[in-house]
Amino acid sequence: MNKTTRRGYALIPVIIAFLAGAVLLVYMFVVHGAAWSSNRANSHLFTAGRLSTAGTIFDTRGKTLAQTQNGRRVFSDSRSVRKATLHIVGDPLGMISTGAHAAYKSRLSGYNLVDGIYSIQKYGRGNDLTLAVSADACVAAWNALSGYNGTVGVFNYKTGALVCSVSAPSFDVNDPPSDPEKLDGVYLNRLFSGVYTPGSTMKIVTALSALENIPDIATRTFTCNGRMRVGGSEVVCMGTHGEIGFQAALNKSCNCAFAQIALLLGKEKLSATARELAFNTPIKTDGIQLAVSSLKLQNASELELAWAGVGQYETLVNPCHLMMIVGAIANGGQGVQPQVIRSMQSPSGVTVYRAITRNSSISISAGYAQTLQKILRSNVTEQYGDNRFPNLQMCGKTGTAELDGKTSHSWFVGFSQRADLPLAVVVVAENAGYGSGVAMNTANAVMQSLLQNKIQ
Amino acid sequence: MASMDRPISRDVPAPDAARTAPRRKPFRWGWMLLLITMFQVFSFFPVAFAGGELNETLGMVFGIYILAEWFYLFLAHIITQRDDFPLEILAFFLSGIGLTICASIHETYAVKQAIAIGLGVLSFAVLTFLLRSTERAMFLRMPLAVAAVGLLVLNLLLAKTTNGALNWISLGSFSFQPSELVKVAFIFVGAATLEKLTATRSLTKYVIFSIGCVGALFLMRDFGAALIFFFTFIIIAFMRSGDFRTLILISAGALMGAILIIYFKPYVANRFATYRHIWEYVNDKGFQQTRVLIYSASGGLLGLGVGNGKLRNVFAASTDLVFGMVCEEMGLLLGILILFVFAFVAVYAVRGARKSSSTFYSIAAVSAAGMLLFQLALNVFGITDLLPMTGVTLPFISRGGTSLICAWSLFAFIKSVSFNIGDVKPYRGRRRKG
User: Fold this and answer.
1) Residue B291 and residue A8: Cβ atoms within 8 Å?
2) Is A195 helix (H, G, I), strand (E, B) or coil?
3) Is the minimum CB–CB distance between A356 and chain B shorter than 8 Å?
4) Is the alpha carbon torsion for B201, B205, B211, B215 positive or negative?
5) ipTM value for the complex
6) Which region, left, alpha or beta, applies to residue A333 given φ > 0 means left and ψ of -120 to 50 means alpha?
7) Residue-level pLDDT, tens digit, chain A, 456 residues
8) C-alpha angle B370-B371-B373 in degrees, rounded to nearest 5
């Protein structure tokens, strides 16, 4: 009898397995609860797949960008604001995956582990999000792009606040296109999810690598005859610059000089600098995954290495990433993460989240950063003209990404050195020609708007 | 009840003193029930007043329920002169949660569920009485086995298809699930047969009986129930023989059988195709599981309040998916508490089995607790995609009469380990006392 009764202990492992299952279940809810509760099938929040009940989204100045009224999502009254902020605010169907409506849906629902989405029950809405963007700046950027596809991003290189994010093509969320297929990548926020050939903006990376690896780079000179033979073919320059120094080479964006610098550096050293600057590395900022910038030189020939040095090889750069790199230079070497959200308020009015500055993985030694600041400033003063950026104390670099058989993409990346305007900007205008054209004008327009409205 | 008080007969070997001494921990059932009652008032109140004013039917159902549990335990205390009723109190606690959920859906459900709980308590009381005499139990095992197999055969003949399983019998407006009643018989027959340690003939009979039950359930396509029976069979067989090797052989055989079935009847495998892939089938085969996760997460730890959930609009919400409803509306904390209650009951059974006055009780209690725990795991982990979904009910809480009666009856088996030696009339084979 004793034996039989003791056999009941065989149930103990079953009980332990059962309890382990219970623990696993709780663990699953802790880890996935936010994602599960903000699934599009949740009819507490979504009506026929459209987000219907959620918090209000404000711009940095408290302008309402989106809110719920009578169980429907209502957006800004201004059509130009709706179009300019579409990609950062997102659409109720969540087609724009990096938009706040998709990327922050669990925050907008007010979900937390303890209460679930009880705030929807109690207040009819979730947390309110105040974004870092300025609607005015976005509209200024949108208008300045003047119909070109592309993107404009501006962020505070000291705090990280992303004060402008525009992507074109866009559409009016109140009047969505019947056939979105017609608009190429309309759901893509090109600032976060796009990658482009960098053109001459890549010379910033090559220049940094030169500073790091060639001690006497500042005093060296290069010869430019308008073209340069490399490995049986040639690199072509936009001009014939003759004997040219390092700084002047960047001012004039001399391809011959930078091709020579790239060859001097070699694949390994240029790759090492790119690695430092987080090329080929996934970057996640404020919950948003950026498209990865890629620079892969392992199998590059001499010629290809030379072209890579001037930004024309297979290199692809994400605009937000390039803005972060330039921001790190502006900030004296230490990069910060762009912040989409400025703050979050619970429905009861309590601020439950406030953006804090986070360093990014991009870090340059302070001395090189200072040198690059000077050179990038001289680009504006010596080459583009300070009058292109009135009152901005602008530093920057244009880029013209040459494409086979199409008009080039126009790039501008830079930053202001005004103490009251610590902002870095990136502009890509697709098929808009030289960087000194549309891109530079757009950069100026958006920076002027931000200066005027005193937004940082 | 006179037989209970009869002194133990001399020809039974006297158990050692430590085990005969009644170990009565002071257990204040009143306080515990008060705690449970407070919880029930707290959860019943908003449901009864959901429409803004008191729904009289629901008020009555809840009132009677609370009065009835106090009356029952008070009566049991007077009759048995005992203080410990943890199983009864936990069963009332769990049944109350199910009643709350039912009441929040429709008052007819509440009335039906309350009646079912009443029948469950009655079955519990009757079964407890029957089990006090092992002789009575031995006498009943054959008729019960015949009745159980008869029920399943009847089921196969009359069954209506519900959700792909043929496990319901409808008699007019009343429908019941025979497999639930057979669960009770299965343990009763198993424990009673095997108590007679020497008779291999009776073991063979039980094996045939088990194969009959599991086979019938397979024919009904009620794989969940078939699994539960098989698991329970393993427990009973182990308690009986203590032989791991035989059990491994049996399990291997069953596994091979399962593989053959899946090979020849691919639709069986199809039913489990969504397992671990529910998010790829959000709007078809994974509909129920994904909704359980979405809405349970929406409820958080504390829940949205009874009646405020959305899972209730999903098919089978108050039956198979009721754990999700509890989580969404009453909170994950309560859901976890329910799991712990069953785990506690299983531990209670195992500990009790060690000290029980008869192997019959030990086997019955451990196998009943194992059956409940296994069914609970299939249900809760099935609808949350930790295990394949098999469509079994959550004991005590799922809406449905037969399931409730079964759960209460299984608790009677577990209760049996607490019978004192002095209370029990021992079974001594076919020899008549004279």
Assistant:
1) no
2) coil
3) no
4) positive
5) 0.89
6) left
7) 457 778 888 899 999 999 999 999 999 999 999 999 999 999 999 988 888 889 999 999 999 999 999 888 999 999 999 999 999 999 999 999 999 999 999 999 999 999 999 988 888 889 999 999 999 999 999 999 999 999 999 999 999 999 999 999 999 999 888 887 777 789 999 999 999 999 999 999 999 999 999 999 999 999 999 999 998 888 999 889 999 999 999 999 999 999 999 999 999 999 999 999 999 999 999 999 999 999 999 999 999 999 999 998 889 999 999 999 999 999 999 999 999 999 999 988 899 999 999 999 999 999 999 999 999 999 999 999 999 999 999 999 999 988 888 889 999 999 999 999 999 999 999 999 887 899 999 999 999 999 999 998
8) 65
- Chain A interface includes B350 (CB < 8 A): yes
- Which tens digits make up the pLDDT trace of A208-258? 999 999 999 999 999 999 999 998 888 999 889 999 999 999 999 999 999
For residue A338, how far is the Cα from the chain centroid? 7
> Distance (Å, rounded) from C-alpha B82 to C-alpha B355?
17
- Tell me the C-alpha distance between A89 and A81, whole Å: 11
Do residue A37 and residue B303 have CB atoms under 8 angstroms apart?
A: no
Query: Which residue from A375, A103, A71, A67 is spatially nearest to A218, judged by alpha carbons?
Result: A375
Domain boundaries, chain B: 2-7+24-423
Burial of A13 (0-12, 13-18, 19+ CB in 10 A): exposed
Q: What is the least distance, in Å, from the CA of A27 to any CA of chain B?
A: 12
Q: Which residue of A has its CA nearest to B293?
A: A36
Report CA torsion sign: A58, A62, A68, A73: negative
- HEC string of A66-97 equals EEEECCEEEECCCHHHHHHHHHHHCCCCCCCC
Name chain A contacts of B299, Cβ cutoff 8 Å: 116
Neighbour tally for A266: CB within 10 Å: 14
Of the candidates B235, B298, B374, the beta carbon closest to that of A117 is on B298
Q: How many CB atoms lie within 10 A of CB A443?
A: 29
A232 touches chain B (CB under 8 A): no
CA triple B361-B98-B328, angle to 5 deg? 125
Q: Give the length of chain A.
A: 456
Spatial CA neighbour of A341 closest among A135, A95, A75, A89? A89
- Annotate A428-450 with DSSP letters as a single string: EETT---TTTHHHHHHHHHHHHH
The answer to whether the beta carbons of residues A455 and A137 sit under 8 Å apart is yes
Give the predicted TM-score (pTM) of the model: 0.86
| In chain A, domain spans | 193-340+357-452
Q: Are strands A288-289 and A57-58 parallel, antiparallel or unpaired?
A: unpaired
Determine the CATH number of domain A193-340+357-452: 3.40.710.10
Instruction: Tell me the pLDDT band of B432, cut-offs 50, 70 and 90.
Output: very low
Residue given tokens 């504390």 in the structure block: B302
B189 phi and psi angles, rounded to 5 deg: -65, -45
DSSP H helices, B242-394, are: 244-264, 266-271, 287-299, 322-330, 332-355, 359-383
Conformation bin of residue A153: beta by default, left when phi > 0, alpha when psi is -120 to 50 = beta
Both structure tokens of B115: 């009646």
